[in-house]
Amino acid sequence: MSEVLVLVDHIDGEVKKVTFELLTAARRIGEPSAVVVGTPGTAAKVRDALARYGAAKVYAAESEDAVTYLTTPKVDALATLAGSASPAAVLISATVEGKEVAGRLAARLNSGLLVDVVDIDADGVGTQSIFGGAFVVKAKVGNGLPVITVRPGGVEAEEADGAAAEAAVELPAVDAAKSARITGREQIVGGDRPELTEASVVVSGGRGVGSAESFAVVEKLADTLGGAVGASRAAVDSGYYPHQFQVGQTGKTVSPQLYIALGISGAIQHRAGMQTSKTIIAVNKDAEAPIFEIADFGVVGDLFQVAPQLTEAVAKR
Length: 317
Ligand code: FAD
Hints:
The structure is a single chain. The chain is of the alpha/beta class. It has helices at 17-29, 42-52, 72-84, 96-109, 215-224, 233-237, 268-271, 291-294, 303-316; strands at 3-7, 10-11, 14-15, 31-38, 57-62, 89-93, 113-117, 119-120, 126-130, 135-139, 147-150, 165-168, 201-205, 228-231, 258-262, 279-284, 297-300. Helix 5 (215-224) links the parallel strand 13 (201-205) and strand 14. The longest helix is centred in the N-terminal third of the chain and has 14 residues, at 96-109. It starts with a strand and ends with a helix. It binds flavin-adenine dinucleotide. Residues 206-208, 232-235, 246-251, 263-265, 267, 269-270, 273, 283-286, 289, 302-304 line the site of flavin-adenine dinucleotide. Keywords: Electron transport, FAD, Flavoprotein, Transport. This is Electron transfer flavoprotein subunit alpha/FixB family protein. FAD binds at residues 207, 232-233, 246-250, 263-270, 284. The electron transfer flavoprotein serves as a specific electron acceptor for other dehydrogenases. It transfers the electrons to the main respiratory chain via ETF-ubiquinone oxidoreductase (ETF dehydrogenase).
């Protein structure tokens, strides 16, 4: 069975959920090999978790430099393996960094690139949801090694036994003059909440929330459900919530199990970022709001009455 390389998304050895989704998707095409790029010892730390989701092999591309530079070590590791392991495909999470790694890798290998797929089949045909989910496109890479980015939440992670046999990958020294060095990392807001693109529940607020202070209503419901907080662009542009939480065409793309839209009209640019959520609940006082066209459950009402009741009901469980 052909090998399928999966770039492990992790922060200091804490594996992100999307990696397990990628391993699940990779099993449809061939035998998944997880590629861990990190400081020495990272692969050993994450090996068991990767084995639980069917990683047959774990490539350790480790060096002190691996987390000091943006993208370059990851591209180097995958390009090295593309040459030595003859994989059938490379799967990378469709995050901001993942997309950059994928683009650079495809350019370096002169390969076709398939971005932001929400599903993938055994023949390597990816499904993309475009124009705010109005159309579904099926596409396959026709040239070279397929490099595919998969949207977090697109494929459901399923456990499977994997041997996770460890193999080392030699990383070339980073050319500092040609690479961007990370000078610091800082968590701005969000506290203990899950990351927006990783969360299984996202509660988003729109212009209807009316002010930054009132976003506490959105946060309370999100916290009661153990979810992340999102916002529409109108809410962000109005200064109600920081930009990094914007969902939509020019914000983040999310695909949680549950998406709750509070005071969001459902413009096509917003839908583009949340349309593939498994279950969508909308609360809006306008019965004609377009968000109801895609909602699985809708409440026509004032979010300041509905959301606190919902929060209270969930808290009682
Ligand atoms: P509105 O459209 O103003 O809707 C507010 C809703 O709240 C209304 O439906 C109203 O009935 C309801 N409401 C008001 N008060 C209450 C209440 N008390 N209780 C219940 N409901 C209430 N938008 C994004 O979200 N993300 C993007 O990434 C994005 N990218 C864009 C890119 C481009 C190039 C362009 C042109 C636009 C983009 N937009 C994006 C903007 C988008 O077109 C909409 O303007 C935006 O999504 C509207 O946000 P909203 O639904 O919060 O506000």
